[in-house]
Amino acid sequence: MDTRTAEELHVPQQTSWLDFVKAHFRDYGMLLSLLVIMLFFQVVTDGTLLRPLNLTNLVLQNSYIVIMALGMLLVIVAGHIDLSVGSIVGFVGGLAAMMMVKWGVDPVTTTVACLAVGGLIGAAQGYWVAYFKVPSFIVTLAGMLVFKGLTLALLGGMSVGPFPVVFQRLSSGFLPDVFGGQGFNYTALFLGTASVVALIYFSVRSRANQVKHKVETAPLGLFVFKNALLAVLVIAFCYLMATYRGLPNVLVIMAVLIALYAFVTNRTTIGRRIYALGGNEKAAKLSGIKTERLTFLTFVNMGVLAGLAGLIFAARLNTATPKAGLGFELDVIAAVFIGGASATGGVGKVTGAVIGAFVMGVMNNGMSILGIGIDYQQVIKGLVLLAAVSLDVYNRKK
Amino acid sequence: MNAILEMRGITKTFPGVKALDNVNITVKTGEIHALVGENGAGKSTLMKVLSGVYPHGSYSGQIVYEGQERRFKGIADSEELGIIIIHQELALVPLLSIAENIFLGNEQAKFGVIDWSAVFARTKELLRMVGLNEAPDTLVTNIGVGKQQLVEIAKALSKRVKLLILDEPTASLNEKDSDALLNLLLQFKAQGISSILISHKLNEISKVADSITVLRDGSTVETLDCRAETISEDRIIRGMVGRTMADRYPKREAKIGETIFQVENWSAYHPLHANVQVVKNVDLHIRRGEIVGIAGLMGAGRTEFAMSLFGRSYGQNVSGRVRLHGREIDVGTVEKAVGNGIAYATEDRKTYGLVLEEDIRKNITLANLEGVAKNFVIDDIRELAVANDYRARMRIRSSNVFQEAVNLSGGNQQKVVLSKWLFSDPEILILDEPTRGIDVGAKYEIYTIINGLADAGKGVLMISSEMPELLGMCDRIYVMNEGAIVAELDAAEASQEKIMHAIVKSGRR
User: Which residues span the domain enclosing A153?
Assistant: First the structure.
């Protein structure tokens, strides 16, 4: 019989850097691959990748994928899938165009209404999945066809635009420079520095708390290194953006959403319950979790985010086309799986999904700069998806 | 009598652990050889070495089978020589028929075309041999676990078995089916088939085994010969745990108070067949500090009763009244039942009790997240403190609370499930087969925990298929048969005979 006391058993052990990184390889591996991919394209494009203009484009091009990946992560963690998000992007974009351009509704009302419609679409699909137990693959495949068709019908097969300037700002606007710098946007640098300070404050506080309660922590050196690296990256990024036009509005929306969803998944009861639901639905249910309602809500959430993505995408093109959103669901799903989510549910992280989305984004962007045709881009992206997930499966087996 | 199998000096290491250390076992031709040991003692690993799951070269030592040294590269090699293993978790395809399952991977076919009449004829013959009276085209999903076990054995027979290995074959069987299975083993023995029986049920082993090999911590402790002398269960336990277990059930001074929990006229119908009443007008009560048992055969409706009571998790048209401290409470959903102070620890930990891929900490707080959260935000530190507290109190053996539940042994998993429900602070705990598949040492610990709950003034309702366990633990025992309570016995007057008698008598009516 084990006679060691509890204290003896969970004394925080001073682990070496290497051991810790090995033990948390899955957490850092993805980030590392993103950095390697960025470095690679930075070199082969002769520094074009990280030019301020291109960096801005990178953000604008991927914002809607990242935003949808946040919702898709929850859906996939809950053990489901949503194939309809591309069609919802098209439909909501089309609806926004009709409201503003043809029916003369003001942009604010339109935005609110469109988000609500996204939520309703999510609810309509979530209802069948959660309460009727129809497999989500089938329900959202149906949804994909239905809303693709409805987009065509709504727009009458035509492109509708352009939008009021206020609405365009959603995608093409930048945060104004309140400090009045000449050719250099001090607001961007200020916000970057402020968020770094906030990040460091929170991680120092959480580490202090962990140390106080004798939880195993990362080695101090690694902790400092990690935070310093993050600080340098964020500030360097904001500096580069400042030398161009500053921070795009959509970047701010995206950053706020990422922080919000990271918090919800890591720290809240509802987040924990979604993971439990995906990990073992029966056990979750017998632990008093309302599994049906939770499943329903993940789809409503997905619908709202897909609606938001639809608005951003439409604003970016400044026109709504019947083909908008085509195939987006594949990029979004790929991002989540590249980010380490499990297809059987219960496993996956917000940071992983975001990194996954940027892996895809950087590759798209880098290969376009290199002039690789859309044909081989798809081949390469497909192989990367397979490689990333195989590696993850292999790591998990070990 | 010569030996059909000799395993000599088998050593098998996994990264960081020595799972088997110089294990020796000799099985004589035509005997039933029992292999016992606590969970994690290395029984399953040893059988995997024998059957070729761990191929030659991945272990050291020698396997001599039918007088020759064998080097199996995979299961196919060992099966070809008549070594057939039947695993604890049955490997049948539920939506295929009995016949299809028996000949799965071994289809009676010519040029890939299956000869169905030959298959059915052969299946009938095999089913007769194992005493299973079912049509060969019945889907496996439509027959009970006991019968599925027989199908597995029929499948083994179809392969001309010489050495049959059964891993916990009776774990999920009731006594009648278990007896039938053991008799079948004795029949096989008469026909010259040797078998290795892995079981935690020592009474069964004393009943059929010719010799017993005891494993402990990956090494052979001893081999007992049952033909020379009768081996008592206590003797086997001593070998398994390395010490005498003075009493298998911890002593307790019951301090029983007033009635705190009453169930009146509880009924439930089958979830698919609305006219089949599975739980029939059950009345029962539990007093403060009392451990109440429900005895019965498999399929008596005990689990169905408990689950229908716990938030209508089973059945339809559930009706009846539940009172806690005399006041009627709503148990219509799991959430309400938990909120009203009822907890139900399921008989099937892996399917219904745990989120296996999550860590101990998250499993413990799952049923009472509000207890570690403020305004929907989880307080990590408080959660960790709670988890560490239960880990220490329940003696959950793990490196820390961040270990995933899937990597724990059965006993420790059960402790996590119990921790989860204790943290929800219930008044009434319903424990469904709390020690199923758990080794002797861990059982004692679980019993101690249950006694502690009763001493703390909770009411415990314990469902178990092991009658000695109920007799050893409970203050009062209800006997259930065919969905109804058919007897109520005080601990002082209860005995296995009386319980069986009550079941049989009610069945005849």
Answer: 48-173+269-397
Least CB–CB distance from B392: residue in A1, A6, A209: A6
| Mean pLDDT estimate for chain A | 89
Q: What residues contact residue B240 under an 8 Å CB cut-off, 6+ apart?
A: B36, B37, B38, B41, B214, B216, B221, B439, B440
Cβ-Cβ contacts under 8 Å, B373 against chain A: 268-269
Q: Which domain holds residue B71?
A: 3-241
Complete DSSP assignment for A101-141: IIS---HHHHHHHHHHHHHHHHHHHHHHHHHH---HHHHHH
Q: What is the mean pLDDT of residues B58-65?
A: 91
If asked whether residues B25 and B169 sit together in one domain, one would say: yes
Confidence at residue B435, expressed as pLDDT on a 0 to 100 scale: 87
Looking at residues B366-372, what average pLDDT do you find? 92
Q: A300: distance to nearest CA of chain B, Å?
A: 19
Model confidence over A341-363: pLDDT tens digits? 988 889 999 999 999 999 999 99
CATH of the domain at B282: 3.40.50.300
B441 & B467 share domain: yes
Contact of A346 with chain B, judged by CB distance below 8 Å, is answered with yes
User: Where are the strands (E) in chain A, listed by range?
Assistant: none
Give the closest-approach CA distance of B353 to chain A in angstroms: 5
Please judge whether B376 and A215 are an interchain contact, meaning their C-beta atoms are less than 8 angstroms apart. Answer: no
DSSP code of residue A163: P
Q: What is the pLDDT of residues A8-32, one digit of tens each?
A: 444 444 556 677 666 666 667 778 8
Question: Are residues B433 and B403 part of one domain?
Answer: no
pLDDT surpassing 80 at residue B345: yes
Q: Is there a domain that residue B378 lies in?
A: yes
Interface confidence (ipTM) of the complex: 0.84
Quote the pLDDT of residue A185: 85
**Is position B347 within any domain?**
no
Q: Residue A323 gets which letter from DSSP?
A: T
pLDDT at B248 over 90: no
**Residue A285 Cα, gap to closest chain B Cα (Å):** 7
Residue B66 lies in a domain: yes
Exposure string of A338-355, with b = 16+ CB inside 10 Å and e = fewer, is: bbbbbeebbbbbbbbbbb
Of A1, A268, A276, which is closest to B355 when you measure between CB atoms? A276
State the smallest CA–CA distance between residue B376 and chain A in angstroms: 5
Residues A152, A295, single domain; the answer is yes
Task: Answer yes or no: do B334 and A286 touch at CB < 8 A.
Answer: yes
**Chain A partners within 8 Å of B414 (Cβ):** none
- Residue B286's nearest CA partner among B460, B474, B509 is B460
- Which of B400, B403, B421, B448 has the highest number of chain A CBs within 10 A, making it the mutation to test binding with A? B400
Which candidate from B369, B384, B424 shows the least CB-CB separation from A272? B369
What does the CA dihedral B339, B342, B345, B348 come to, rounded to 10 degrees? -80
**Residue range B171-227, pLDDT digits in tens:** 767 777 888 888 888 988 998 899 999 887 788 888 899 999 988 878 888 888 888
The single-letter code of the amino acid at B2 is N
Please indicate whether, in this complex, the C-beta atoms of B334 and A287 are within 8 angstroms of each other: yes
B337 interaction partners in chain A (CB closer than 8 Å): 288
